[in-house]
Every structure is written in structure tokens, then in C-alpha cells.
Amino acid sequence: MVVQLAQERSVVNRFLAELRDEQVQKDPMRFRRNMERMGEVMAYELSKTLEYDEQEVSSPLGVARMLLPQEQPVLATILRAGLPLHQGMLNIFDRADNAFVSAYRKHRKGEDGFDIEVEYLSCPSLDDRVLVLCDPMLATGRSMVLVYKALLRFGKPKALHVVSVIASGEGLEHVKSHLPPGTRIWLGAVDEEMTAQAYIVPGLGDAGDLAYGAKL
Asked: pLDDT tens across 40-77, in order?
């Protein structure tokens, strides 16, 4: 299942428009907050797919029967660009366990091509858990697939969700082909074009730099 929130009439389009807007991008705090708000909306939508039990909750005046989630997911984020999006999801899934992965593009000298390097991993057990992989930009899709495979050393999740703010058409097809059947993909929007350096067009630029400053 693939959900594109920008196809719906909702305030999420305002958040996404500001994330793309090169003038608004000059305010890193605003950029981070908009990315966080995207995470909050996506977490709310994703929450509708989880399993719920009816439970009794005592108030000062009586007992209410309410549907409450059976469990909290594991939120996994690719550093560093994914942190604001992750925080937005954590604002909603406030009891979730968390995983963090360091993955980066290792460019080949004198070439446009690059390899994906996965280094640091911090993760709880994933056995029979709902795993949510967050990364703001789904360009080639290779990072998402490699990170998922790297996390399997911590166990096999029972369900997988992928959350990105903007995906390329190529990246979307790559993850659909290389992640397990039944994976749910939650996107803000899909842009069809990519540059030779694998940046999404029109996209929004480098999410990590816009959130935290340029790197050497």
C-alpha cells in the first residue's frame, strides 16, 4: 500500500509547500518544525493501521470503555536528516522504542556514482514488532533497503512501514520491489525526476543541511 498525503485536501500541503520554499528554508527552525509536523500527521495516519483492544479507563466520575493500541511500534531513523521527522512521529507514538542508523553516500572519486555505507546501529529487538523506517527523502531507495536489511540482525518484524516526505518515482519502485510484501509506504509527495547525483527534482534540497547546517 502506498499513501501520498499531498493528493488529499489537507493542511499537510501547507507544511510540504513551506519545506520546499527556498525562502522559508532560510529559517532552519521553521524547516525542522515543518518536518516534525509532517511526522506527526504521518504517525496519526499510520496509527489507524495498528491493532487495538477495548479497555476500561477510570475517570473521577466513572469508567469509560476505550479502544487503545495493543503495542507501540519501533521507530527507526536514518541519521542525521531523519531526526526532525522522527521527532514528529515520536510526539505521537510517545511510548515507542527507537532505533538509529548511520548511513551515508560514499561518493566515488571523479564520478557521479556512489555507494551506501551503513555504520552505526542502535536498536531494540525487532522480533514480532511493528517497524517504522523514517527518512525524509526517498531518492534512489537504496539506503532504505540496505538499512532494513541491516536491522534484520535484531530480529524479524511482523510488519514494516516506510515513511518519507518526498520520494522519487524510481526510489518508490525500488523499495516496492526490494522490501517485503505487505510493506506500507507513507509519503508526502512523489516527484518523478532525479539529477545525475540522485537528488530529487523539484524535491527540496538537502534535508540534513537545511535542518542542521551545511557539512564539509
From this structure: 999 999 999 999 999 999 999 999 999 999 999 999 99
Cα-flanking dihedrals φ and ψ of residue 199, to 5°?
-105, 135
**DSSP secondary-structure letter at 146?**
H
Q: Is the dihedral of CA 25, 27, 30, 31 positive or negative?
A: positive
pTM as predicted: 0.91
* Residue among 210, 216, 196 at smallest CA distance from 80: 210
Tell me which DSSP letter residue 3 carries.
Answer: E
Angle between helices 28-47 and 12-20 (to 10 degrees): 150
**Please, what are the domains in the chain?**
2-50+68-106+113-212 (3.40.50.2020)
